[in-house]
Amino acid sequence: MNALVSGHAAALWVGLNLILLLVLSMLVVRQRQKHKVALGDGGVPELARVSRAFANATEYVPAGLIAIVVLAVLETPPLAIHVIGFLLLAGRVIHAVGLSNSGAASIPRAVGVLLTWIAYVFAAAALLFYAIA
Q1: How many Å apart are CA 68 and CA 105, to the nearest integer?
Q2: What does the alpha-carbon distance between residue 17 and residue 53 come to, in Å, rounded to a whole number?
Q3: For 65-109, how does the pLDDT look when each residue is reduced to its tens digit (9 = 90+)?
Q4: Best label site of 6, 44, 127, 131, fewest CB within 10 Å?
Q5: 83 φ, ψ to 5°?
Q6: In angstroms, rounded to a whole number, what is the distance separating the alpha carbons of residues 79 and 45?
Q7: Does residue 44 contact residue 113 with C-beta atoms inside 8 Å?
Q8: Does 1 have pLDDT greater than 60?
Q9: What angle do CA 101, 105, 109 make, to 5 degrees?
């Protein structure tokens, strides 16, 4: 029973993070079409920022999702999966908003990175705990 519930928790966060990646990708496509740029950022700051927001999410989200899925396979309590999933998604959304609005350092970017790192630390600790226990 716990594996099923853990799997459902993991499915929620994998699905939500996939939607985030799709939305960020669509924002890149919209800017490319608007500025008629087929490759790269064409020197357009708005396109560079949304491209970087998408790229940054694709750098961080997969490892977090792998951790979530492995934790589900290990029948980790769903609450742990929900905490990690929430921190990861919230961190990536907040970071993407901050980066999309400004290429400079900002509070949303810093908060987003911090939440993502906390999700990573919590996931790593849980994975190591269940590997040893």
Answers
A1: 29
A2: 14
A3: 999 999 999 999 999 999 999 999 999 999 999 998 877 889 999
A4: 131
A5: -65, -50
A6: 40
A7: no
A8: no
A9: 65
How many whole angstroms separate alpha carbon 12 and alpha carbon 15? Answer: 5
Structure tokens at 31: 């800017």
pLDDT in tens, 18-69: 999 999 999 999 999 999 998 988 999 999 999 999 999 999 999 999 999 9
Report DSSP letters for 36-62, one per residue: T--SS-TT-HHHHHHHHHHHHHHHHHH
* Longest CA–CA separation in the chain, Å: 55
- Given the candidates 1.20.120.550, 2.60.40.10, 3.40.30.10, 3.40.50.300, the CATH classification of the domain at 2-132 is 1.20.120.550
